[in-house]
UniProtKB/TrEMBL annotation:
Top-rank taxon: Bacteria
Name of protein: Shikimate kinase
HAMAP family in the cross-refs: Shikimate_kinase
Record carries keyword Transmembrane helix: no
Source organism: Metabacillus malikii
Keyword annotations: Amino-acid biosynthesis, Aromatic amino acid biosynthesis, ATP-binding, Cytoplasm, Kinase, Magnesium, Metal-binding, Nucleotide-binding, Transferase
SUPFAM superfamilies: P-loop containing nucleoside triphosphate hydrolases (SSF52540)
Length: 165
């Protein structure tokens, strides 16, 4: 089985759903942000503060390409889609599942989180602007799952069903 990549905007639930999906499918799961933190020994916040976004994006691409491509669930950071080369790589290597969540819900989940430097201290309007600037990049996704008002178990089940089609 080819890799299953979970993508979507910050706070959509990629990391959380990826873990639940991995358990249900008895597959390993790796999270690009966690891999970046593990290999650098720094938090995402520290990387952005000390080295800047470009450095983070270079690491993100490197990590993505070094992760296994079979029998695995890979949860990505929300900005992975910005780079054309990342989108092409994921499309060629596996199935891309887009998790969509309402932006009001997303804002409530993430605006106070200092380890999401791109979202931290942004107003809701600024977050919407960022979302809209990235919206077209999500078109490369194989499947889209709307997560609004759904439990983690329900979303996981929906992904499993969609993978059968
Ligand atoms: N379907 C859901 N229902 C309720 N809370 C959720 C749901 N999905 C995610 N969350 C919560 O939202 C927050 C962000 O989830 P996370 O998995 O870190 O998102 P992402 O990796 O997409 O940024 C976490 O606190 C998580 O527990
Ligand atoms: O959208 C982004 O640019 C980012 C999303 C984050 O991951 P989550 O989507 O898991 O929050 C993390 O990679 C970093 O803070 C940058
Ligand atoms: Mg995450």
């Amino acid at each position: 089985m080819k890799a299953i990549y979970l993508t979507g905007f910050m706070g959509a639930g990629k990391t959380t759903i990826g873990e639940a999906l991995a358990e249900r499918l008895a597959l390993p799961v790796r999270d690009t942000d966690k891999e970046i933190e593990r290999t650098t020994g720094l938090t995402i916040k520290q990387i952005f503060e000390e080295h800047g976004e470009q450095y983070f994006r270079d690491l993100e691409t490197e990590i993505l390409k070094n992760l296994p491509k079979d029998n695995i669930i890979i949860t990505t950071g929300g900005g992975i889609v910005i780079r054309n080369e990342n989108r092409i790589y994921m499309k060629e290597s596996g199935v891309i599942i887009l998790l969509h969540a309402d932006l009001d819900v997303i804002y409530d989940r993430i605006h106070h989180d200092s380890n999401r430097p791109i979202a931290n201290k942004k107003s809701k309007e600024e977050l919407v602007t960022l979302y809209l600037s990235r919206e077209s990049y999500y078109e490369d996704c194989t499947r889209k799952i709307n997560t609004d008002n759904k439990s983690i178990d329900d979303i996981t089940e929906e992904i499993i069903q969609s993978l059968k089609n």
